[in-house]
Amino acid sequence: MRRKRWKSGRKNKIVIRTVIIALIGILFLFFCDAKLRPQIRSIASVKACALAEQTVNDAVLKVLSSGDYASAVSVEKDSDSRVTAIKTDVLKINMMKAKVSKATASVLSGTERIVAIPAGSLTGLDILSGRGPAIRIKVNFTGFSEARVNSTFSGEGINQTVHRLMLTVNTTVYISLPDSKVTKDLSYEVCLAETVIVGNVPQLYADTN
């Protein structure tokens, strides 16, 4: 009888210890989650913003590499080879802007991406930064963009002026992380054409033909 009671008491102690250990383990996990979650959110946000910027830039460059948009600008000269006028092909420019808008909209259509964070980066120790197994976090990109083309003149030397045809793409990206959302404004600018003018600044007009 005493032996049965002893066995029963021993089992109860084992159960109690197991429950206590399990509770300690759960509390430890909650503690780690509370400590690491802000770091994970911060690092994931930075990486997701960089990925979004690279994605948009790649989409714009892909459009620009598929056509000769420098030919959207033509130069007229007089008998003395002096530049008298600079014409821009509005049709070609509008087509390019439409392609850029379509390309950026495609990559910002809510497609799921993966951001990897090395576990060592969460420790805050420089020696462990970028090391350890990767924590993979799913993110989604949505947003919109606006493409604009501007002509600029700037003095570059004695009696010299440079005309540039600049493409500016302004994009607002909404990044959805597992437990938060981030809004990122991106701006991408590239020179489509550049003309060096010696002498007086010529007329600038659009060619709609």
Task: Explain what this protein looks like in three dimensions.
- This protein is an alpha+beta fold and 209 residues long.
- It has one domain.
- Helix content is 39%, strand content 42%.
- It has a 4-stranded antiparallel beta sheet, sandwiched between helices.
- A hairpin with a 2-residue loop joins strand 4 and strand 5.
- Helix 1 packs antiparallel against helix 2.
- The longest helix has 64 residues.
- The termini are far apart.
- The mean pLDDT is 75.
What's the order of the H and E elements?
A: HEEHEEEEE
Could you tell me the mean pLDDT?
Answer: 75
Query: Looking across the biggest beta sheet, what order are the strands in?
Result: 3-4-5-6
N/C terminus separation: 108 Å
Shape verdict:
elongated
Helix content: 25-40%
What structural class do the secondary elements suggest?
A: alpha+beta
Described by its quaternary structure, the protein is single chain
Radius of gyration: 30 Å
Number of domains: 1
β-sheet strand percentage? 35-45%
* Number of strand segments: 7
**Number of helices, where a helix is a run of at least 4 consecutive DSSP H or I residues:** 2
Spans with pLDDT under 50 lasting ≥5 residues? none
Sheet with most strands? 4 strands, antiparallel
